[in-house]
Structures are given as C-alpha cells and as structure tokens.
C-alpha cells in the first residue's frame, strides 16, 4: 500500500486539504498528516484538520522520507507563513525531491517549493500572485489546472483540486 504524507498547519485552505485527504484514501492509500501543532487543528474556514481525532498524525521530527511514497502540500497563505519558517519541513520537501518521490503542491504551497529551492528549471503552476516569485526562483510559470514536471505535480487554485488529484494519481499508478 502506498503511503502518502500531507504536510500542513492550522489555517490551511480547507478545500486543498480535505479533497486530497479523502480522494487519496478512496484510492486505498495510507494517508498520514503532519501539521505544525502535532494535533488536530482548524483550517482557515474552520474544518478540523485532519477531520477525525483518530486520523493518523505524525510529528515532523519523526518523519522518515523513506517511509513515504508521496508528499502532498495543500496551500493557504496563512498556513504558508507558518510552514515556510520551519527548516525541518523545508529539508523534508527537498529530501522528497532529491529522492525523486512525487510531490503535489497547490496554490500557495508553491511557496514551500520555492523556499525549499527545488523549482529551478521546472515547469510549475501556483497561485497567480506567486508568478513573479516562481520566475525569480528559476521556475517556469505555467498557467494550467495541473502541471506535471517529472516528480512535481502543481496546480494554481482549489477550483482545480480535481485536475490536481487526477494528475497525481496518474503518476502514482
């Protein structure tokens, strides 16, 4: 069974966590959440993240990249303000990238890819306000619902979560 890690925090954009969380479980994958508080938190619109207290949560210090097949990074500007300051999380993202494991990021989560310094010469989508940031980090901004460049699967907005997950699942299988 494929193991999927979702790294997030309080104030995540609720749709960008909930849809992949349940969609990937529906595919039969083992989905584990890491959030900066190491307990159930609330998304920007008040959704419990993860939804049930019995859902699997892992502490950032206990993450072994070798244990996971895929990394999912939901967005949310307030969440990114928290996560981008955590060097351990940035190291984990870079380790997934260097091991050529799949990384799926949407909307503002592109900022985590930038802070991890992994988008140089990569085709990347992300929230439209981050276009200059993507370009300045050496990435190639692509305005499409889902952009796949080797092990990176990116999307610009939660209105495209279906396209984003379809792209990710096509790469997992």
List keywords for this structure.
alpha/beta, 173 residues, six-stranded mixed β-sheet, 6 helices
Count of helices? Answer: 6
Element string (H = helix, E = strand): EHEEEEHHEHEHEEEH
- Rg value: 14 Å
- Total discrete domains: 1
Strand order of the largest sheet: 2-1-5-6-10-9
Q: What is the oligomer described by this structure?
A: single chain
Under CATH at level 1, the class stands as Alpha Beta
Query: What global shape is seen?
Result: globular
Number of strands: 10
CATH topological fold name: Rossmann fold
CATH homologous superfamily name?
Class I glutamine amidotransferase (GATase) domain
CATH architecture: 3-Layer(aba) Sandwich
- Biggest sheet layout: 6 strands, mixed
Distance between the termini: 11 Å
Q: Average pLDDT, to the nearest integer?
A: 96
- As a percent range, the share of helical residues equals 25-40%
Work out the strand percent: 15-25%
Low-confidence region ranges: none
Given helix and strand content, the structural type is alpha/beta
Q: Brief description of this entry?
A:
The chain is of the alpha/beta class. 32% of the residues lie in helices and 21% in strands.
Show the helix and strand layout.
Elements: E1 3-8, H1 14-26, E2 30-35, E3 41-42, E4 48-49, E5 70-73, H2 77-83, H3 87-98, E6 102-106, H4 110-115, E7 123-124, H5 131-136, E8 140-141, E9 147-149, E10 152-155, H6 161-172
């Amino acid at each position: 069974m494929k193991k999927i890690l979702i790294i997030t925090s309080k104030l995540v954009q609720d749709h960008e966590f909930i849809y992949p969380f349940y969609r990937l479980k529906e595919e039969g994958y083992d989905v584990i959440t890491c959030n900066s508080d190491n307990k159930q938190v609330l998304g920007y619109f008040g959704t419990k993240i993860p939804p049930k207290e019995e859902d699997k949560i892992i502490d950032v210090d206990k993450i072994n990249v070798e244990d996971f097949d895929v990394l999912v990074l939901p967005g949310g500007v307030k969440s990114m303000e928290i996560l981008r300051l955590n060097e351990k999380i940035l190291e984990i993202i870079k380790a997934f990238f260097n091991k050529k494991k799949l990384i799926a990021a949407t909307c503002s989560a592109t900022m985590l890819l930038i802070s991890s310094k992994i988008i140089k010469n990569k085709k990347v989508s992300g929230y439209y306000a981050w276009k200059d940031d993507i370009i300045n980090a050496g990435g190639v901004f692509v305005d499409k619902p889902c952009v796949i460049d080797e092990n990176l699967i990116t999307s610009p907005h939660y209105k495209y979560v279906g396209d984003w997950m379809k792209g990710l699942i096509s790469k997992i299988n």
